[in-house]
Amino acid sequence: IHVLNTVSDNGAWEAVRHEISDAMIRNKGQRICDILAESYAKFDVIFLQECASTFVLKLESSKIGDTHDVLFPAQIDRWRDQNSIILVRRDFFAPETFQDETVRV
Q: 42 and 68 in contact (C-beta within 8 Å)?
């Protein structure tokens, strides 16, 4: 940071750091939802790993949530927040056939 502040004495580095933080941390969930909707919406099944429990709601309310059901364990882990989520295309799978088998594993 010292080198960057020294080289960028006009404060331009701070703006770049802010942009990086927005993209990588602050807007990470929304950006992932956008990528899924733009690049993966045509897929029938999408597997996601190590997802925060709050990401379920973000997925359900996003554009990908309009075309896919969001499947997650009934006993979602809010402490470690490393959950597996499956997105299944609504026009390909019948939601009434989904059954959580996590407790049996």
A: no
